[in-house]
């Protein structure tokens, strides 16, 4: 069924026999087509009404004769072929009237036709503005041009007042005028398409552009739908959902009770709006994509709105508004609300795009605003700078949940705002705050014992909390009085470092009821690896990305031109040389290929891999997996420094020789520490030479260690974590 047939069927039962689409090529075919339906279709340019396109003389009187005839017939259609139709007064369609402007048809308001006060002229204005019109449809591919630059009285190009079951479809509207200053209470128009206190109305697939105020504006409408519209370069907003001041242009209320509630039960889908030139005339101090001004019960989905200043703006009372999968793009604020307004809005999976170097993604979000899974970005040409989020005070029950982890600054002026960057991590302390949000699973890493404090806001529903044992583990968590733990559930937190426990609660808005507790999870750690081959030197200095530690005067590291690192010793001191990629090393493996140069019979250590290192010359700490020689016996050992005091934990006899290339591997996983070495020309053995258990040092830097005055030459150093394989040249 065609758009025309569908609209006609909705508005008048006698029209239900309409069949087939309206021809859009030959107007003459309409005379044949009308005989197959039960209502008249009038050709505007026919002899009956003598409406003449292209003649620069007023045609509105004849057009209104056609509108009156259609209403007298009980309904029908007037068709305007392509051409310019000049008017100096309003076209006034009545009940069950369809005005079909074919592509190329333009209704044009002549210069000076609309003047201030009683002389205002709306190019199209329904006949009964007291609220008595039903079934008015302005459709087709034509254009209504108010020629506002040559008028002095404000008007909207298409204005329907108090209508029911009406629509504007596939039309263009431009040239509307608003003459007064913003907020003066005098000028109330300037829209391409304006609907005032209408019920069951649609604006579909229209084009509104270069109107002084808004492209499309429903005022205090009920069950309004806008879809597929394109609106650009209007002075204020592409679309404004608004209220109707009873003291405005037409006054009073019509079919709708309590006009102060504004527009309600509305849907906006697949509309696009933009300001390519940043129009900002005096009546319009801001330019927005979508502007909400007193409305409720709205669904806004899959729209793209690019405002010169705001993408989405809201003022006054806006309740029960939900948006999803929209793009809000702007130069100043992507989403902005006037301060201290009653805004209740829930945005889900919207994308916010900043167009300049600095601005606000969200500004003045206030009471009962919720933002879930939002995405944030800047255009490629925006330039360097920071876009932030500002929360109004007091921001009771405001929720922010980002689609991805983010560093966007949140300027939170409200004491009860829930800020949830992705899966929100709770901040550890003796007293821990948690404002649970349905669908968000936060993580709490315990660094000591703590208590979940009573929440100032509890959202009804089911909530989960992941508790991780930080540091060395062994921490406990207690609960505030509105956390109720049944006797049937035993809460015994894991003690191992890194262990994960999961708590599940049911909330009734007053208390948190524990319904489940699972202990002892472990998470796989993402692996990484790296290698340094010491092949970038010229024999004059140390390699990059390394740091000398502990008694640095006794060691000279030199990256040789032959692709090796020479650890040139000048005394029997404790010397360490760490690699930056091993800073913060906790668990994993380290592999080194090295050679001890020159014979020596001195007792002590000659080369070691140092790991989990820390401290300075007087407080050395960390583990050593080293080759030692004592009384002629060669050994491999694992020992540790703690506060400059060395302890040999365990060792085993294993021969090694100077001027021979060896490889040594260290394994560390918590307290499980292992080491082995072998001739680099041989196959690596599967058994560990030394295995110990010790937990004194959890993390630190890693690299090379040399003690006595024999030099060491290192060919490469590599590492791997999370199950990755240590690389080799």
Which structural class fits the helix and strand makeup?
mainly beta
For the largest beta-sheet, the strand count, sense and barrel status come to: 29 strands, parallel
Portion in strands: 35-45%
Number of helices: 3
How far the N terminus sits from the C terminus, by CA atoms, comes to 72 Å
Return the average pLDDT rounded to an integer.
Answer: 83
List low-confidence stretches.
1-37, 182-187, 252-259, 278-285, 415-423
Spatial extent as radius of gyration: 39 Å
The overall strand count is 57
How would you describe the shape? elongated
The helical percent reads under 10%
What report would you give on this structure?
With about 725 residues, the protein is mainly β. Helix content is about 5%, strand content about 45%. The protein has three helices and 57 strands.
Offer a quick outline of the entry:
Helices cover 4% and strands 44% of the residues. By secondary structure, it is mainly beta. Strand 1, helix 3 and strand 2 form a beta-alpha-beta unit.
Topology:
Blueprint: H1 3-11, H2 29-33, E1 41-43, H3 60-72, E2 76-80, E3 83-87, E4 97-101, E5 105-109, E6 124-125, E7 136-140, E8 143-145, E9 158-161, E10 164-169, E11 172-174, E12 193-196, E13 199-204, E14 207-209, E15 216-219, E16 222-227, E17 230-232, E18 237-241, E19 263-269, E20 272-274, E21 288-301, E22 304-307, E23 310-324, E24 327-330, E25 333-337, E26 343-348, E27 351-354, E28 359-365, E29 369-378, E30 387-391, E31 399-402, E32 410-412, E33 418-420, E34 425-426, E35 431-432, E36 443-446, E37 450-452, E38 461-469, E39 477-479, E40 483-484, E41 500-507, E42 512-521, E43 528-532, E44 546-549, E45 555-559, E46 565-569, E47 575-579, E48 588-596, E49 604-614, E50 621-630, E51 633-642, E52 645-653, E53 661-669, E54 672-679, E55 690-693, E56 701-706, E57 712-721
Parallel strand pairs: 1-2, 2-4, 3-5, 4-7, 5-8, 6-9, 7-10, 8-11, 9-12, 10-13, 11-14, 12-15, 13-16, 14-17, 16-19, 17-20, 18-21, 19-21, 20-22, 21-23, 22-24, 23-25, 23-26, 24-27, 25-28, 26-29, 27-29, 28-30, 29-31, 30-32, 31-33, 34-36, 35-37, 36-38, 37-39, 40-42
Antiparallel strand pairs: 38-41, 41-42, 43-57, 44-47, 45-46, 46-57, 47-56, 48-53, 48-57, 49-50, 49-56, 50-51, 51-52, 53-54, 54-55
